[in-house]
Amino acid sequence: MVTRTPEEIRSEVSKAYGNRVRGVLAADEALPLVDAANCCAPAATAEASSCCGTESASEDVSCCGVSDDQTIVTNVAQLYQQSDVSDLPSTVTDVAFGCGNPTAISALLPGQVVLDLGSGGGIDCFLAAKMVGETGRVYGVDMTSEMIALARRNQQKVGATNVEFRLGEIEHLPIDTGTVDVIISNCVINLSPDKDQVFREAFRVLKPGGRLQVSDIVWTRPAPEGVKEDIEQWAGCIAGALLETDYKAKIVAAGFTGVTSVATDYPGGTGVASAAVTATKPLA
Questions:
Q1: Among 52, 160, 182, 253, which residue has the least CB neighbours within 10 Å?
Q2: What is the mean pLDDT of residues 150-154?
């Protein structure tokens, strides 16, 4: 059995997600910086039938559609109400992959500081920015440079002045201690080879009384033999997923209280589920 090191896992996961957006990013950078909300409207000519008249260089993501791969990760825009994303450009919605909508787990409030772990192209950050308003602040952290580049370009399109994207690992957050009200994350923590450290870092940056509210992939029964060492299944959010009970236990071990999880099994009876998880950092 091949043992994967944490460094190898991070490298392969970052490469996989960089590949998902590299073509979209390159095509978008070649275009004038304008609002691309209607980028995927029906083309006026046959020559412009691809998204914005360009072809995506990535085989994993279609420029105007959902992912072509068959992993558990889905095009996350399908999981949101259309009214939430109707004003966002296609370079936000078409490359957003996840397993749920963390901003729907518990309402965010005006003036709050929000941190998104593994922010990708920025969809949850932009939705959170609407909810916290001008007096609030949203930080997005992602370890993949292509994702950060795309998110920052998307930010310019959206005009979200209360959002900031930072390159970094969720195990070592580039965020000051005790400065965040709410942490959100969408199908990302399962990708980390050191989830104990992720939850310790989440606890560190939250203010007393702050909330962790994430969507993630979990197993409701033990994973099949061999899955944990399959590097492609790591990038597909399967190999790194924990048993739901273990996931909650690690959050408790980091110091959180009031840990809850509502898991919804995917069809097929494989034991893979999407979980909505919440927890609180104690006031004292």
A1: 253
A2: 88
Mind listing the pLDDT tens digit for each residue in 82-96? 557 767 766 665 566
The token duo for 221 is 């029964």
Question: What letter represents residue 176's amino acid?
Answer: D
* pLDDT grade for 237, boundaries at 50, 70 and 90: low
The tens digit of pLDDT for each residue in 100-120 reads 776 665 589 999 999 999 998
Please identify which residue in the block is written with the tokens 């033990």.
222
In b/e form, how buried is each residue of 37-60, taking b as 16+ CB within 10 angstroms?
bebbeeeeeeeeeebbebebebeb
- CA 192 to chain CA centroid, Å, is 12
In this structure, what token pair is assigned to residue 119?
């922010």
Q: How far is CA 166 from CA 100, 143, 174, 244, in A?
A: 22, 9, 7, 29
Of 222, 277, 227, residue with least CA distance to 106: 277
Q: Which residues contact 238 (CB under 8 A, 6 or more apart)?
A: 71, 72, 217, 223, 227, 230, 272
| Spatial separation of the C-alpha atoms in residues 177 and 189, rounded to whole Å | 20
- Range 45-64 average pLDDT: 29
pLDDT at 145: 87
What does each C-alpha distance from 13 to 2, 96, 193, 202, 239 come to in angstroms? 17, 16, 10, 21, 11
This prediction's pTM: 0.76
Q: Collect all residues with Cβ–Cβ distance below 8 Å to 201 and sequence separation of at least 6.
A: 170, 171, 172, 173
